[in-house]
Amino acid sequence: MGIHNYVVVDSLSATLSALSDPTRRLILARLSVGPATVGELAEPFQISQQAVSKHLAYLQRARLVDKRRAGRRHVCTLRPAPFKEVSDWVEHYRNFWEQTLDRLGEYLRTMESKEEKRRGR
Q1: How far is CA 79 from CA 30, 44, 97, 98, in A?
Q2: Whether pLDDT at 1 is above 60
Q3: Least packed by Cβ within 10 Å: which of 9, 21, 46, 48?
């Protein structure tokens, strides 16, 4: 495993940690439809704007969200790169399981064929 892969794993850890919280996932879901201010993001939650800001700071550290000033407001946007890293990581294991299940299916077909030949004798 090269040094680049360690960096990807480290950023993947940060991303997955950020995604582990349901409030942060809801914030990301809202941002997936477009930019929003911190106030707009806080509206649907039964928590303070300060608590939402803490979640946003966590998402920023994980590089999932960018926050910029627009006058007196802070506007948040989604960053796609970390989601691609998660997708690529999951895809690797999806391929692994598909190959494993394909081999199991082939084994079961072979066993079934042998059983049918044995019965046919």
Answers
A1: 13, 22, 29, 30
A2: no
A3: 46
Look up residue 50 and give its two tokens: 């300060």
Quick one: tokens of 22?
Answer: 């349901």
Question: Quick one: which H or E segment has residue 66?
Answer: strand 65-70
Do residues 66 and 74 touch, judged by C-beta distance below 8 A?
Answer: no
| The token pair that represents 98 in the structure block | 């598909």
Q: What values do phi and psi take at 35, rounded to 5?
A: -60, 155
Burial of residue 67, with CB atoms counted within 10 A of its CB: 0-12 exposed, 13-18 middle, 19 or more buried = middle
Query: What is this structure's pTM?
Result: 0.70
Q: Which amino acid is at 17?
A: S
Question: Tokens at residue 84, please?
Answer: 């691609």
What phi and psi values does residue 82 have, to the nearest 5 degrees?
-65, -30
Q: If you count them, how many residues does the chain have? A: 121
Pairing outcome for strands 65-70 and 73-78: antiparallel
